[in-house]
């Protein structure tokens, strides 16, 4: 070591005594911003510098290149501007002429009276001239612009200078590095080639100024290249051209980020206000919202392709083809052709197209003989092929070079590499190489994953099959890529791949959709049995009639199975799914916007610290040492890199990626398509559920038939046919329902109805032998019949049939319609030959289609009772056909009329085993559960009670439209089971007195005002009136048909059940409430609410009065900012919006109704989840913040961001647990990064103040081993096992986040300065003699007490902050359950403690610890030496550090997340827009 120190001293002395640079060199150096002769910079020992005057040959060559480059670019810019002016001159002239002509016509000059009418009849043409730029709006509402370009020889020559200039900058940077490190010694570990002999520029100072100039210009240059990476930079060297004559087209799509959190932030509001002010000042409308990227569209330059075969010019952008309108005058632009707009012939037109033999092959001739047909009205095959392109998705896998360039061409990497360039130049080459290796390996890994994913997607897009199509009246075999919309395609079975989206026109098919939707069971697809209406633009036909591209047909009903192609290529459902994967929508979370503000604040702080550090260095020692400005500038850059951590954007997402992996691999079984939404799951406050297949099992168990029978006529269960009995005869009296449902031994008419009223298809691959709707499969299995084919049902001969086989032929079928809620079939029974109609569907709708005399009087009450008993209730009816042709029954209306009620079909839909526990766990986590179902209200309420959505003993009020009420409105009432609880509730709150006063108030009376009732209800001192009145309608124990019920009692007394029904209805009317009564009496607080779809629609359309809003607002306990009402934001709000958070059950909900409910919850600032399993849930799943589709879903799987393969709702709890943990983990990593930067600023301040520095071994331990390892370990924290009644913060400016980071930082600063004061007060302390050493030789600044003290305090604080920020609290397991973090903490603290208290050895010398006398290392000498730090002092420092760790741990655990923090959070929530929900 002494020998090495002597060598260093000799080199320094040699440099100090060398001659200064000549006068010419001094002038040149001054011109470059470097010091001149008078500052006495020496030449390197051993020879003169290559560059003295900056007029040497290499410098002149660089100057010549600069002149050549700028001269070429200037000439090109002038030529380009002139060419653009010539191109636009015709359009400007035409526009000017048109303007002048219109002005002249307005003045009436130059035209006779006969000329004016003629000119008025001709519309004015737009300004002529070539079209160079175009903007259009696509089907998703995005604005897409096209701009044409062509090549130029001068532009191509100028563009070659771009990569040449990049190479010149890289070469100049290499020259500076070679000069810096040339001739340095390689001795481990003391002399790691820190500085060389400067043979090119002569000394450090000139080298540093040259580096500064090159570094600044390089950052600016490469920043411009990154800005123009989408094609803008390339197009700057091309000429603008008309679109029809262009060789390249720049396509720009402007997308708005999807805001997935509606949280309120004052910081963001202030930022937006500042941006608006700045926008007005600079005259712009929109400004960048952050510092990570500029706002605006995403651009890509693509070649303009021409197809010789099709004669069409087009571009392909994001897998979609845009065809250039072949207008000869250059006025035509690009079109995104929608084939559905040309195929607006509807289902009937497609059937006609099938009959005439398909589309015409060419536009010139007709494919059919005779008169004009539907084929002549539709585009021909060649025209459709030109407009839509081949039936494929144009997607190419990125090359490795392009993917690498895309990965590293970002402003983040530019910032990273700019910092690393300074480190590499300023003797930190060993640290920089490791950091660059980490960044490079990470980037290459991302590239490999990206290319691998693209190859998998490309394999999914491949089309290799051939299909038979009808064209021009002939059947021809073509490639699947040649299919066009409108083609009539022959559908075959045996694993036939569906080439595009097809609408079945004839026959039926059984499909395997597992490759697209994940549905493992085969699904049935049927041709429509009645004409379908045109779905309209952007919509598709019902899914039960559509074969989806990418699926497989397993079986067809016959060889005569045909379908029409409705969508091809990227427009298919498969293509849209792949587009969603390739180009997902931008998701904007709350902290994404706030992160830009944080980064901006950190930049301001970093600039302040940088300026302060440079000032300190110059005032204390840099000025005396005559250091160049570049030395302090480099130190300032290091400070900026510490304050602005390069991993800040990564740590906010790494926790979500880890959570997505856990959700997929663990027992959760949840696949995540959008990891960003996992963190959003941590903020969910309302969880919405579908019922059937979600809360309950997907399969329905057939329970039986509650049969109807004539009052005075017994059914002949041994009749020859189903329609020859009582259905064809006049009943002597009104029918009645049997007392109990039957599970067997049905009459022939009911048995044949079960066997034929369905849309099933035979399929041997299924256990039941049929495939179709689960309800119909269970019903058909219960009948015991066999489905021979699509239209014939057989009952095998046995003893029960007298040895005679029975058949039912289905002559005509009308499939289930969501509009009518019914399906029907016209059948013929063999061997009786009887014909008739069966109709099955919603019991309300079927009853409307029956003869009133055939419907039992108690029918509705019994149906509701079954529904409230948790059963799925349908009705079945029929009628006999006597004479006439079946063809005469052409419409559904003709078939479904004058029916005779046969009874109620009952299905039991059992609750899933873990549903109740899941709801309870959500309630424990303060998540409100809501049911949104298309099922009947009674069934929904029963399941809600069974699943614990409704607490035990709480009555449910069902809101439905009043029947036959001219005033309309919603009536709220409860069913029999809840009457007792409601009665007790009303009596306990003196309800009848309030209602009497309410009626007087509504009647205009002066007494009995609404306020008086409120005082009584709230506990007035007045004596309440006596309660000697009829309490309520007594509840019916055992149900309507039980002996204690009205029907049973009437039967026992020999009376009619009609009288019993009338009496019950009168009693029930007393406890039917209007919406106003519900709100003003606060019944909505005491009861749970349920609504039907039609009631929900009425509430949406009805405005809420101020009186009701005041009550509802107070109930939500929402304290408002600035006194503004928490409503829809429009001044007035609907009753639906105000009552939404009080409604628990939404019954008979349509797909659109489900979306409106979810949107309403989201509009109130509530993070909402939706779980469903069916296609009718798809819209709500896509709309909700967090949508989870169960594995049995069809289209729901495609649109939902989360999919589970478990037949359970329990994964929603796992998703919320992981979401809360991921959000807490992301914020822990964020706080660790921010604290790391803030603490580093204090560290840099102290280092620059004392003029000391750390050895590289310390930096390795702190940055590479410490920061990177602990950042990774924090992300591995696992979620808590249960949900708790709180949610993690999602705001970077929340009180929890700010107090945690700032509090720890302040405490650490206090203890840092306390440690410095402790050593400075020691009697043996000797300040570091910074005046004896050049500060740029930082490797000589580490052997002193100041560095040793700062190193230990800072490193302990950095490691311990990772542990403290990982405290489990409520959402994650404790930090010691994170074994990786525990291992790192144990090894890190153990190593630091050992290093701090051990005796001097090789390890302490490697860290340059001042544990022994230092007198032979610069700047120390025998005359001025550094004494050894006493061990007693080290123990005192160790105790101080332990106290520091204890204080910050107590601050985090007891204050921030303790009682004080909870109080402040509650107070903050009280002052913010927070809706209190009933759980």
Task: Report on the architecture of this protein.
- With 1479 residues, the protein is of the alpha+beta class.
- The protein has 50 helices and 45 strands.
- It has an eleven-stranded mixed sheet with strand order 24-45-44-43-25-37-42-41-38-39-40, sandwiched between helices.
- Strand 43 (1168-1172), helix 41 and strand 44 form a beta-alpha-beta unit.
- Helix 6 packs antiparallel against helix 14, helix 43 packs antiparallel against helix 46 (1345-1364) and helix 44 runs parallel beside helix 46 (1345-1364).
- The longest helix has 51 residues, at 57-107.
- The chain starts with a helix and ends in a 9-residue tail after the last helix.
Distance between the termini: 73 Å
Helix content: 40-55%
Outline, from the CA principal axes?
Answer: globular
User: For the report, how would you describe the main beta sheet?
Assistant: 11 strands, mixed
Taken as a percent bin, the fraction of beta residues is: 5-15%
Strand order of the largest sheet: 24-45-44-43-25-37-42-41-38-39-40
- Strand elements, count: 45
Spatial extent as radius of gyration = 41 Å
Q: Report the average pLDDT across residues.
A: 77
What is the SS-derived class? alpha+beta
Q: Which parts are unreliable, with pLDDT below 50 for 5 consecutive residues or more? A: 1-47, 101-128, 282-297, 1006-1061, 1117-1131
Number of helices: 50
Write a brief structural summary.
It contains 50 helices and 45 strands. The chain has 1479 residues and is of the alpha+beta class.
List the keywords.
1479 residues; alpha+beta; 11-stranded mixed sheet; 9-stranded antiparallel sheet; 50 helices; 45 strands; globular; disordered N terminus
């Amino acid at each position: 070591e002494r020998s090495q120190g002597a060598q260093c001293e000799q080199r320094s002395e040699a440099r100090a005594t060398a001659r200064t640079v000549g006068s010419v060199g001094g002038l040149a150096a001054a011109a470059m911003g470097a010091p001149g002769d008078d500052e006495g910079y020496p030449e390197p020992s051993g020879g003169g510098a290559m560059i003295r005057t900056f007029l040497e040959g290499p410098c002149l060559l660089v100057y010549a290149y600069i002149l050549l480059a700028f001269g070429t670019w200037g000439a090109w810019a002038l030529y380009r501007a002139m060419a653009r002016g010539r191109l636009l001159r015709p359009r400007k002239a035409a526009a000017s002429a048109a303007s002048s002509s219109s002005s002249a016509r307005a003045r009436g000059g130059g035209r006779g009276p006969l000329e004016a009418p003629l000119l008025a009849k001709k519309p004015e043409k737009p300004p002529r001239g070539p079209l160079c730029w175009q903007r259009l709006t696509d089907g998703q509402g995005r604005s897409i612009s096209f701009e044409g370009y062509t090549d130029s020889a001068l532009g191509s020559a100028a563009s070659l200078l771009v990569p040449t200039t990049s190479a010149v900058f890289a070469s100049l940077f290499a020259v500076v590095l070679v000069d810096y490190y040339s001739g340095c010694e390689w001795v481990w570990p003391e002399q790691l080639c820190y500085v060389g002999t400067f043979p090119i520029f002569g000394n450090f100072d000139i080298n540093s100024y040259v580096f500064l100039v090159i570094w600044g210009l390089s950052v600016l240059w490469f920043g411009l290249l990154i800005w123009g990476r989408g094609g803008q930079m390339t197009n700057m060297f091309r000429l603008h051209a008309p679109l029809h004559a262009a060789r390249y087209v720049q396509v720009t799509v402007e997308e708005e980020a999807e805001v997935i959190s509606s949280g309120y932030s004052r910081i963001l509001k202030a930022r937006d206000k500042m941006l608006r002010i700045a926008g007005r000042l600079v005259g712009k409308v929109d400004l960048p919202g952050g510092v990570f990227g500029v706002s605006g569209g995403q651009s890509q330059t693509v070649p303009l392709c021409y197809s010789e075969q099709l004669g069409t010019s087009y571009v392909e952008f994001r897998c979609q083809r845009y065809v250039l309108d072949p207008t000869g005058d250059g006025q035509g632009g690009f079109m995104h052709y929608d084939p559905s707009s040309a195929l607006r012939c509807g289902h009937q037109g497609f059937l006609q197209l099938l009959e005439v033999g398909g589309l015409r092959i060419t536009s010139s001739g007709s494919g059919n003989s005779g008169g004009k047909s539907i084929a002549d009205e539709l585009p021909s095959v060649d025209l459709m092929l030109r407009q839509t392109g081949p039936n494929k998705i144009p997607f190419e896998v990125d090359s490795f070079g392009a993917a690498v360039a895309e990965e590293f061409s970002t402003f983040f990497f530019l910032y990273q590499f700019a910092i690393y360039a300074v480190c590499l130049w300023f003797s930190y080459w060993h640290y920089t190489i490791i950091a660059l290796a980490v960044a490079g390996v990470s980037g290459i890994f991302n590239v490999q994953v990206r290319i691998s994913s693209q190859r998998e997607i490309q394999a999914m897009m491949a089309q290799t099959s051939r299909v038979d199509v009808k064209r021009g009246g002939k059947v021809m075999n073509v490639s699947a890529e040649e299919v066009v919309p409108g083609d009539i395609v022959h559908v075959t079975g045996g694993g036939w791949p569906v080439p595009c989206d097809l609408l079945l026109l004839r026959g039926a098919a059984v499909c395997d959709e597992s490759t697209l939707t994940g549905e493992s069971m085969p699904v049935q697809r049927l041709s429509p049995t009645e004409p379908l209406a045109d779905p309209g633009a952007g919509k598709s036909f019902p899914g039960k009639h559509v074969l989806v591209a990418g699926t497989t047909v397993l079986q067809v009903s016959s060889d005569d199975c045909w379908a029409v192609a409705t969508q091809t290529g990227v427009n298919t459902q498969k293509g849209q799914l792949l587009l969603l994967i390739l180009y997902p929508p931008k998701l904007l979370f709350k902290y994404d916007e706030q992160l830009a503000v944080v980064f901006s604040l950190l930049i301001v702080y970093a600039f302040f610290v940088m300026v302060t550090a440079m000032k300190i260095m110059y005032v204390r020692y840099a000025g005396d040492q005559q250091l160049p400005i570049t030395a302090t500038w480099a130190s300032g850059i290091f400070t900026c890199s510490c304050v602005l951590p390069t991993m800040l954007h990564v740590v906010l997402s790494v926790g979500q990626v880890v959570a997505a992996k856990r959700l997929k691999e663990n027992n959760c079984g949840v696949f995540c398509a959008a990891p960003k939404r996992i963190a959003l799951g941590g903020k969910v406050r309302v969880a919405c559920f579908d019922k059937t297949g979600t809360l309950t099992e997907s399969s329905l168990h057939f329970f039986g038939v509650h049969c109807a029978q004539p009052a005075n006529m017994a059914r002949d269960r041994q009749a020859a046919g189903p329609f020859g009995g009582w259905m064809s005869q006049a009943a002597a009296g009104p029918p009645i329902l049997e007392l109990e449902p039957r599970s067997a031994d049905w009459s022939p008419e009911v048995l044949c109805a079960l066997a034929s009223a369905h849309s099933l298809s035979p399929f041997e691959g299924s256990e039941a032998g049929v495939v179709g709707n689960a309800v119909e499969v269970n019903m058909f299995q219960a009948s015991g019949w066999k489905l021979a084919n699509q239209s014939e049902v057989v009952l095998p001969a046995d003893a029960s049939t007298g040895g005679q086989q029975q058949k039912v032929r289905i002559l005509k079928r009308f499939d289930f319609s969501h509009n009518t809620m019914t399906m029907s079939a016209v059948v013929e029974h063999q061997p009786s030959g009887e014909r008739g109609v069966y109709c099955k569907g919603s019991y309300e709708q079927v009853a409307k289609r029956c003869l009133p005399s055939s419907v039992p009087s108690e029918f509705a009450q019994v149906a509701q009772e079954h529904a409230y008993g948790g059963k799925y209730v349908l009705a079945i009816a029929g009628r006999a056909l006597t004479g006439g042709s079946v063809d005469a029954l052409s419409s559904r209306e003709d078939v479904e009329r004058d029916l005779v009620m046969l009874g109620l079909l009952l299905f039991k839909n059992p609750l899933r085993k873990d549903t109740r526990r899941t709801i309870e766990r959500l309630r424990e986590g303060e998540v409100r559960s809501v049911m949104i179902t298309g099922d009947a209200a009674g069934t929904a309420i029963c399941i809600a009670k069974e699943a614990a959505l409704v607490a035990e003993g709480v009555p449910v009020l069902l809101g439905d439209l009043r029947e036959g009420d001219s005033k309309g409105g919603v009536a709220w009432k409860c069913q029999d089971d809840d009457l007792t609880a409601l009665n007790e509730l009303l009596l306990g709150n003196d309800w009848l007195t309030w209602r009497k006063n309410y009626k007087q108030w509504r009647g205009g009376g002066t007494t009995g005002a609404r306020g008086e009732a409120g005082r009584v209800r709230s506990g007035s001192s007045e004596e309440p009136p006596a309660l000697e009145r009829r309490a309520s309608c007594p509840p019916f124990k055992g149900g309507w048909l039980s002996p204690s019920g009205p029907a049973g009692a009437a039967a026992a007394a020999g009376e009619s059940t009609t009288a019993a029904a009338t009496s019950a209805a009168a009693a029930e009317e007393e406890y039917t409430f209007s919406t106003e009564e519900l709100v003003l009496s606060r019944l909505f607080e005491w009861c749970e609410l349920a609504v039907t779809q039609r009631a929900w629609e009425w509430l949406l359309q009805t405005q809420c009065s101020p009186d009701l809003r005041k009550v509802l607002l107070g109930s939500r306990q929402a304290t408002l900012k600035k006194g503004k009402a928490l409503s829809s934001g429009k001044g007035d709000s609907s009753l639906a919006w105000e009552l939404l958070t009080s409604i628990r059950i939404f019954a008979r909900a349509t797909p659109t109704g489900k979306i409106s409910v979810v949107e309403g919850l989201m509009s109130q600032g509530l993070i909402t989840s939706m779980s469903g399993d069916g296609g009718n849930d798809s819209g709500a799943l896509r709309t909700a913040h967090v949508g989870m589709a169960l594995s049995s879903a069809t289209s729901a799987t495609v649109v939902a961001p989360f999919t589970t393969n478990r037949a359970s709702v329990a994964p929603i709890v796992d998703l919320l647990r992981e979401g809360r943990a991921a959000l807490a983990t992301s914020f822990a990593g964020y706080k660790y990064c921010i604290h790391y930067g803030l603490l580093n600023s204090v560290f840099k301040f102290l280092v620059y103040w004392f003029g000391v520095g750390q050895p590289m071994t310390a930096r390795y331990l702190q940055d590479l081993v410490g920061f990177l390892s602990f950042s990774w370990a924090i992300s591995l924290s696992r979620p808590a096992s249960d949900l708790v009644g709180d949610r993690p913060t999602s705001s970077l400016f929340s009180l929890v986040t700010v107090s945690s980071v700032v509090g720890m930082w302040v405490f650490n600063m206090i203890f840092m300065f306390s440690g410095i004061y402790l050593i400075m007060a020691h009697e043996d302390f000797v300040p570091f003699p910074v005046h004896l050493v050049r500060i740029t030789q930082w490797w000589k600044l580490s052997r002193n007490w100041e560095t040793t003290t700062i190193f230990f305090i800072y490193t302990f604080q950095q490691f311990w902050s990772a542990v403290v920020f990982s405290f489990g609290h409520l959402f994650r397991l404790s930090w010691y359950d994170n074994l990786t973090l525990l291992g790192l903490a144990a090894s890190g603290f153990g190593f630091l403690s050992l290093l701090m208290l051990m005796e001097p050895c090789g390890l302490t010398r490697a860290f340059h610890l001042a544990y022994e006398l230092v007198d032979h290392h610069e700047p120390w000498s025998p005359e001025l030496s550094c004494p050894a730090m006493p061990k007693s002092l080290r123990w005192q420092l160790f105790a101080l550090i332990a106290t520091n760790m204890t204080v910050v741990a107590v601050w985090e655990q007891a204050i921030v997340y303790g009682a004080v923090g909870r109080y402040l959070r509650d107070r903050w929530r009280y002052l913010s827009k927070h809706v209190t929900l009933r759980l």
